[in-house]
Amino acid sequence: MERMTDAPYSEARSRTPQINEKDIRKLFDITELRKTLYALLRESLSPAWQNAQQLFDPDAEGRAEWVFASRLLSCYKTSVPQINYLLESTPPELRLTELTQERDELISRLAGTMAGMRWMKHMRANDGWRFMAIYLFGQQSRISQDDIQELFMTIDQIAILTDVLRGRGKIYGIDFKAFTDEAIKAFKQYCHDTSKARLILEHLHKEIDGKDSPKRSTRPISAAIRAGLIVERPPYEWFNQEFGELCKNDKTSYYAYTKEDCTTYDDDILHKELVKQFRELA
After folding, report:
1. What is the pLDDT of residues 130-174, one digit of tens each?
2. Is 191 strand, coil or helix?
3. Is the pTM of this model over 0.85?
4. In degrees rounded to 5, what are phi and psi of residue 274?
5. Please, which of 6, 183, 220, 222 could form a disulfide with 207 given CB 3.0 to 4.6 Å?
6. CB neighbour list of residue 40: distance below 8 Å, 6 or more residues apart
7. What is the rounded CA–CA span in Å between residue 282 and residue 277?
8. Cα–Cα dist 254/277, whole Å
9. Distance (Å, rounded) from C-alpha 232 to C-alpha 252?
């Protein structure tokens, strides 16, 4: 029987499709899905479903969707206390990194299960949740109820962490703001597409925070420039204000590694991967 706790070692883990920040939002921004499922449950109480025998008949039309909706919504906000504890137990300058790492680890665990892998495939499609509902309903003899419950709890936790990292923590009563409005505004002047400023800055922090050398902490800035997302090299004063306390760097190194004719990263595999990631954000 499939176990969520066996995720890192499962066969499914090796077949997990690559996932980037845009994918994460596609798969785990489930605000609209929750609204759809609430509406579905309200409809289930309409005259057509008031017959108890029909409501609990395994063969009734829409039964798989009804069970799916009930399970997903029953897990809503169950992880909020855990997320608040993580924030309270982490120094402010490390919270963004910790939240991101926690979310990425949960995604890795989820992707290591057959049901989790199905979620990550099906939810890319329109109305993918309906196919997921039918799949889970048909797997009840193979996947335990506890594992199905853990699946939904993990999905909900990833979804909430993704919202929190996007600055939407208030709807869960979580007091965390990854970036101030002033920081976003200050960064927009260097972006090709100002509507992507928050997304780019989030990714920069993910890759820069905690780096212990100027070469490593400047690499993401250089990659974003090469990818065309940053059209004007930000001055060191901006970099130092935004990242100065979160990484190791200096003015001379910053300008050396970000100048137009710099060849330091030409054969740098990590730099090439970062350029690819930033282009996927465009």
Report:
1. 999 999 998 888 888 899 999 999 999 999 999 888 777 888 988
2. strand
3. no
4. -65, -40
5. 220
6. 65, 66, 69
7. 9
8. 21
9. 18
